[in-house]
Amino acid sequence: MTTTASHPPEDLGPRPQTGGLGIANVSKVYDPEGRAVVALDDFSLDVEAGDFVAIVGPSGCGKSTLLNILAGFDTPTSGEVLLDGVPLAGPDLAPRPGPDRVVVFQQGALFPWMTVLGNVTYGLLKQGGVSRREAEARAITLLAESGKLDRIADAYPAQLSSGMQRRVEIIRALINDPRVLLLDEPFRAMDTVNKSTMHRHLLELYSRNRKTIVFITHDLEEALFLADRVIVMTTRPGTLKMDIAVNLPRPRKREMMASDAYLALREKAVFAVSEEAKRAFERGEREMA
Amino acid sequence: MKDATVATTSPALPRPRRARRLDWRGTSSVVGFFLAWQLAVNFSLPGFTDIPTPWEVLVTFVRDFLFSANYWSSWLVSFQRVFLGFFLAQIIGIPLGLFFGTHATFRALVLPVFEMMRPIPPLAWVPLSILFWPTTEASIVFITFIGAFFIITINVFEGVRSIRPEHVWLARSLGAGTLRIFRRIMIPAVVPSIAVGMTLGIAVTWNVVIAAEMIASDSGLGRLTWEGYVSSTPTIVIVGMISIGLAGYLSTMIVDWIESRMMPWKQ
Predict the structure, then answer these.
(1) How crowded is residue A41: how many other Cβ atoms within 10 Å of its Cβ?
(2) Cα–Cα dist A82/A239, whole Å
(3) Which residues of B129-156 are buried (b: 16+ CB within 10 A; e: fewer)?
(4) Are B174 and A126 in contact (CB under 8 A)?
(5) For A120-185, what is the HEC assignment?
(6) What percent of chain A has pLDDT over 90?
(7) pLDDT digits (tens, 9 = 90+) for A269-283
(8) B173 and A162: CB-CB below 8 Å?
(9) Which residues have C-beta within 8 Å of that of residue B80, sequence separation ≥ 6?
């Protein structure tokens, strides 16, 4: 079922030196009250540095578990994760979050008590080695480059729209120059118009500042539009069902979604995704009964 | 929610204030109240035979109270008790709530006793408090403290429990250590709950101090009101009640102001 992916998208910057992910046979079993729940089952995936990978699957397929393991918030029950060849997570390794793998969460997690500038500089200041002055200058520059967001530097998150908040959050992650950017359904709660604006901003950031991105979503169209590679996961226990190389040219344009190449990809994926969604739904009904 | 039109008014974002304008409806309501009171006394409605008119209250207030050192010292005494008890409740309640929220062992050991004492109304502590503390003053401050202490502790505890794990994870991702997370993530995350505890606490504190003064003290606004009753001078009773209302209102304003300083990020 799998096709080897990874093509070099032409009009992007050079591949970064770091950010290659190796996920080897990772499983995660949760065991509350003795009922073992297998969230992830023998999941393997190699991501080349600088690739934009989207992971699609129905809810409860272990997407978020995988992301938490990559971020260092959780440990796998078995298997191993390597970042640039160095073990990062395994059953015997303590979970180790770090600024090389920053997450943007689905509900948004800007610190509400800090201004935009405070949020964006937080990581740089905590990691040390940078003066506040320099950190703020870098933050302002990056905010200004990202659609003149420097004008909201002194605003608190509650004063911003959810789209704005999410953009600031992505910038807060990027300023730390992470090797891997982990996005956990960041645009889930948004309407279509906002979503496509966010896609444009994200792709812009990606082309200017190319990094490995792992993008979790349950929206297949979104995945195909953004990523170089789309991974379809099975419903729980989550494992790899299909690996699709998205050979669409960059920069991506909305019109592309009517092209034959896109439609062919979509047709290929949509069956796999809906099959899993159906299985998840049926299992849900069984669990209710 | 449109993308580009949001919050472009920075740097100086105005903080909306609660409107307290008295429009014609508000004014007529207040005037109507005093008019009804006046008429009720004029026509000697049942229960109103011994009640002075608003005008008599005002005259008595200006003549006997406005320039009386005794009267203002009642204010001072009550205020001191309220704020001392309230302050002690914060000093002890906030750390206790934080401990409840962060240390499972400590919680398991102490929370049962805490929960056992919590439903006891503050006024039920009056007799024991008088027996226990060497001075009346100390016992009244203690009862006031009890009034705010349980409320603030429970609120801080709830605040810790409602901290979003994503915030803590992210702070760790971004490179913060445990102590820094406590200072820059947990404390600010709990501040809104502290504010709720303060708002509820200051109201309870006034309730408690007035009742305690009536029962156990020879000073304060509560005592002043009670003495009016004992000496059959209803005018004093009403002056006392209005004073207590104003004092409570003033305290709430002070606490609101402190809260707004604590949370500049709240609109």
Answers:
(1) 18
(2) 18
(3) bbeeeeebeebbbbbbbbbbbbbbbbbb
(4) yes
(5) HHHHHHHHCCCCHHHHHHHHHHHHHHCCCHHHHCCCCHHHCCHHHHHHHHHHHHHCCCCCEEEEEC
(6) 26
(7) 888 888 888 887 787
(8) no
(9) none
For the question of an ipTM over 0.85, the answer is: no
- Four-residue CA torsion sign, A119, A125, A131, A137: negative
**Cα(A117)–Cα(A127) distance, integer angstroms:** 16
CB B82 within 8 A of CB B144: yes
Sequence letter at residue B3 = D
Residue among A159, A162, A172 whose CB faces B13 most closely: A159
* Residues constituting chain B: 267
Distances (CA, A) of B17 to A152, B20, B199, B250, B265: 22, 9, 17, 17, 14
Which band of pLDDT confidence, cut at 50, 70 and 90, is reported for residue A285? low
From the number of C-beta atoms within 10 Å of its C-beta (0-12, 13-18, 19+), residue B50 rates as: exposed
The β-bridge partners of A180 are A101, A212
Sheet with A229-233, edge to edge strand ranges? A101-104, A180-184, A212-217, A52-56, A229-233, A240-245
In tens, the pLDDT along B230-255 reads 999 999 999 999 999 999 999 999 99
Three-state DSSP class for residue A21:
strand
The number of beta carbons lying within 10 Å of the beta carbon of residue A21 is 22
Nearest CA in chain A to B4: A164
- Tell me the count of A-B CB pairs closer than 8 A: 99
CB-CB under 8 Å, B169 with A97: yes
SS3 A23: strand
Go through the domains of chain B in sequence order and give each one's CATH number. Answer: 67-262 (1.10.3720.10)
Chain A residues in contact with B191 by the CB 8 A cut-off are 113
